[in-house]
Structures are given as C-alpha cells and as structure tokens.
Amino acid sequence: LVGAEPPAEVPPMFSQVEVDENGRIIDARFKTFGCGSAIASSSLATEWVKGKTVDEALQIKNTDIAKELCLPPVKLHCSMLAEDAIKAALADYKLKQDPNKEESEKKA
C-alpha cells in the first residue's frame, strides 16, 4: 500500500505480482481509489511488468509511465504512485522469497 495517509489528497494504491518458477512475472494486479490518471498509470504499470523478471520490472520509471500516457504535470504524482506501488509489491515478493533476510538486516 503506497500513498499518503488520510486526510491527504493522494489516494492509496496497492499492487500485487505473481512470479513463476523461472522468476518471470506472470500476473500483476492493482487497486486504487483515485482519478482516471491514477487508474491508467496503475493499469499500464501492471501490464508492463508482465513477462519481465523482477529486476527488469524494477527498471520501470514513473517518467516512462507519464510519457506513455501523456500525463500533464499536475498528474505526475499518479505515475509516481504507480511506480512506488510496483516497487512495493516487488519488495514484498523478494521478502517472501527470503524471510531470513529481514531478520539478518534487523540484527546488523
């Protein structure tokens, strides 16, 4: 879940990815309660990550999303949220693959 907490103006956004045994993203989903630009940004980001490895998907930038959708400057935060949501979903996936990593980082 990314986005500012209430009562902020930025709606929350959530993304989820499914990765196959070869490390490729086979599905991605999102949920947002935002404007059309937020929905379009999230939708595009989830489509772009499908078929990519986790590392390839991490290379997607909000500027690429904004350019593809021709977002006006006032809507750039929507593409930023989409990038943040994908990165959060991928970080969650990586953590679930190696739960001991978080424990070792806490001890360090």
TrEMBL record:
Any GO MF annotation of the entry: iron ion binding
Taxonomic superkingdom: Eukaryota
InterPro entries in the record: NIF_FeS_clus_asmbl_NifU_N (IPR002871)
Domain NIF system FeS cluster assembly NifU N-terminal residues, every copy: 16-97
Pfam families found in the cross-reference section: NifU_N (PF01592)
GO biological process: iron-sulfur cluster assembly
Protein name: NIF system FeS cluster assembly NifU N-terminal domain-containing protein
